[in-house]
Amino acid sequence: MESSSKSYITLDRYWQFLRQRWISGLGVFTIVFLFITLAASLTKPLYKAEGKLLLKKTNAISSLTGVGTQIGKLETLQGKDTSPLNTEAEVIRSVSIVQKTINQLGLKDNKGKSLTIDGFIKNLSVKAIEGSDILAVSYRDPEPVRAAVVVNKLMDVYLEHYESLHKKEISVARQFLEKQLPKAETFLQKAEANLAIFREKNNIVSLQDEKQEAVRKITELQSKIGDIKGKIVNNRSQAELISKQLGMDPQQALAITSVSQSAGIQDTLKEIQQLEAQLADKQITFQDNHPEVIYLQGKLSSLKNILQGRIQKLSNSPQIQINSSLQPGQIKQQLTAKLIELESTRLGLVSELAYSSNYEANYQQRLRSIPRLEEKQRQLEGKVQAARSTYSLLLQKLQESRIAENQIVGNASKISEAQIPRSPVLSPKFYYLAGAFVSVLVALAAMYIFEVRDKTIKTLDEAKELMGLTLLGVIPSFSKPKKIIRARKESESFTSRLILRDIPHSPISEAYRMLRANLSFIIADKKLKVIAITSSVSGEGKSTVAANLALTMAQMGTKVLLIDGNLRSPCQHKIWDLDNNEGLSNIILEDSDIAQVITKVADNLNVLTSGTVPSNSASLLDSKRMTALIKSFNDGYEFVIIDAPALTVGADAAILGQMVDGVLILVRPGVVNSVNANITRELLQQSGQNAIGQIVNGVVPQN
Length: 703
Fold this sequence. Notes:
Among the domains are: 211-377; 457-699, Rossmann fold (3-Layer(aba) Sandwich). The chain is 61% helix and 10% strand. It is built from 23 helices and twelve strands. The protein has an eight-stranded mixed β-sheet with strand order 5-12-11-6-10-7-9-8, with helices on both faces. The radius of gyration is 69 Å and the shape is elongated. The two termini are 22 Å apart.
């Protein structure tokens, strides 16, 4: 319900807007429509010729040969929202293609000068047909034949440009490849040479096989070394046992064996043995100091020295003593021979162990170096592979570029040439309709501008919203509304404004009675006896409202005094048809008696006119005499109404507002504007006057 009410208010305001501004809108519409119609009649008709271009994503010949499929491929760089057709459309509209077309056709403008690029593009249209890969190229020109010729020439220039551009791109690519190919080949040869040098230097055939062979060899050597160590331990055990039995180590046994097998040593031993036997016989017979005994002892000692020298010379061992070991028995000889054999075997095993250990260490060192060699080999092989791939790719691309350079690479083709148009693009009916449409828009815009610039309050709602005061009454317009533009005068005569007296049963009279009733509630509640009626500007009808309000209150039996407090532009004496030679100003100046000046105009209603118009009305009103007069009137009458001047005219209304019990603000739509209304509201707030409500006067029922 609330939304429907708002919608009604909005539509109603639009209708009011149209009713108030239709004359100005009609004037603007007429001027614009006549101007457009005149311009259309002086404009030559334009003819439109259209041709069509088909653009494929890839070239058909390239697709069949498989060469150059990426050359000239229609793709977008901005994403899915853009189309390659739009890009090609911009290419057709480019400066180079348009200028070339103009030059080849020798196009001129209306002044006979060479047609400008902007002038050409203004009549050119290049659009993609939705749902297809076709571009529609059209041109408008007063000459139908020229329009068709321009379109066909433009498409030809574009196709030539398209083909030459892509062939130029291929040529540049081929030249680049021809320069890069020898460099790639040199780099490949260098990479292969580096790999060969590396393999030769490190004796590499197959590192993977070599790694497996090294692991196998190391395993075998480790097993062999273990066996050798076991044999050495076994040999040492046997040698130690025999050494204990013989009482000598293997070196001594070897030396004794060598000595015992010497013929000279054995002969010497026999001589020593014979001398020892002779010496023993002589010692039995002779004393030790006997010459023969001494001779034999000396000879024996000499032989022993000779024997000892021969033993040392033969065995290089001074530790061998001359005893029975030099002439061992058969068993001792066998043990000695066994001990020597074991020593010989041990030395062979030790030598074999050292060789095997060294061999294993070499394999271990090689095995540890294999990962580093593999890494280096991978790097070199990677460089070779990359160089070989680059060389192969460049060679392939060079061959493709040479083939593509000799084939048609364009993806665009002409599928429809422009035909000479038979009828113009726009008919006279279109110009009339377009002119009417544009004229309506301009007229509405002008009406809106007039409305925005017009700050006048036009409706009851605007008046209520702007002043923000309690609405006590709405007085309809007395006569049929007439257009008032920034006017402050009323057309009807002053004496005809007393509606309650002349037309007591009219709707306006009822409106005044409703105002009286609403005001009575406030008067009774707040005990108000003296009020002033004022407005924002002159011409809002406050004097008429004051007169009729005073009359309607008097008709209810209330003793009322109506004072014309507008000393600047008095009006009450005209409404009541009274003499204004003496009045309020004369009483303040004490030039006249109050009883002589106040006039009774109806039952319970007296009127005090303004009197002579003074030079300084504000000073008179802001006097002690005026304050005393109001107090006197308050005591002598039940209700006093002061017709005050407008608030924005001078300080009179503000002065009177400080003296009375309350102020009624009158607002008349079509006369007061929002600026003056805002000033009035601020004056009321600043002066601290008791604004008891507002009256909206002269309301047109339609508003």
